[in-house]
Write a structure and sequence with these properties.
By secondary structure, the protein is α/β, with parallel strands linked by helices. The chain has a single domain (about 5-185), classed as Rossmann fold (3-Layer(aba) Sandwich), CATH 3.40.50.2020. About 20% of the residues lie in helices and about 30% in strands. The chain is built from 4 helices and 10 strands; from the N terminus they run ββαβαβββαββββα. The strands form 2 sheets. The protein has a 7-stranded mixed beta sheet with strand order 1-8-7-6-3-4-5, with helices on both faces. A 3-stranded antiparallel beta sheet has the order 2-10-9. Helix 1 (about 35-50) crosses helix 2 (about 70-75).
């Protein structure tokens, strides 16, 4: 199997913003359109399929709730054998501040000796993914890789980021799995949330 680590960040798209026309009044602008998401997810799936084409199974770990849409779209495009499991972690509340990370739901089987791919929706502070990466690394998988839809430009991640969809400005974003207080999660695009919405808390 070819190493995926050396391809970290290759092909990601730096996005700016598109004007909103009669969408949701709580949104400031669309950052990533449904068409852009669909194309980039297909590209990432193709790269993952090439990188893991010589293994018997890829164990994919989706992080709830935010990654469920990305995970569904990504896995349907994969051409390599894979299974899907989920973990749930607590980091965000209903405020803009991140708290301590804790595991709410763990995996159903050990990852020791397996090729593991973490699928996450966003790298914001980077704290959640860093915590999860080290937890799973300690369980001794054969390999451990990461796939993330969006990363905010402010962050310098201290762990390998192997597959990245888009790099976005440092703003609050919602849609395509991303939420604010469990709202806006099923929007088909990624959009910036107006500051006055989340600054009310």
């Amino acid at each position: 199997m070819k190493s995926a680590a050396h391809r970290a960040h290759q092909g990601y798209i730096l996005v700016g913003g598109l004007p909103l026309n009669n969408v949701h009044p709580d949104l400031a602008r669309v950052l990533i359109t449904p068409e852009q998401i669909q194309q980039r997810v297909k590209e990432m799936a193709d790269q993952i399929s090439r990188d893991f084409n010589q293994i018997s199974r890829l164990y994919i770990v989706g992080i709830l709730k935010g990654a469920f849409i990305l995970l569904a779209d990504l896995t349907r495009e994969l051409s390599v054998p894979h299974t899907v499991d989920f973990m749930a972690l607590s980091s965000y509340g209903k405020t803009t501040e991140s708290g301590a990370v804790r595991i709410l739901m763990d995996l159903r089987e050990p990852v020791e000796g397996q090729h593991v791919l973490i699928v996450e929706d966003i790298i914001d502070t980077g704290h959640t993914l860093r915590y999860l990466y080290h937890i799973l690394k300690g369980r001794q998988p054969t390999s451990l890789h990461t796939c993330v839809l969006v990363r905010k430009t402010r962050q310098n991640l201290e762990i390998p980021l192997d597959y990245l969809g888009f790099e976005i400005p440092d703003v609050w974003v919602v849609g395509y799995g991303l939420d604010y207080a469990d709202r806006y999660r099923t929007l088909p695009y990624v959009a910036e949330l107006k500051k006055e919405i989340y600054s009310q808390d």
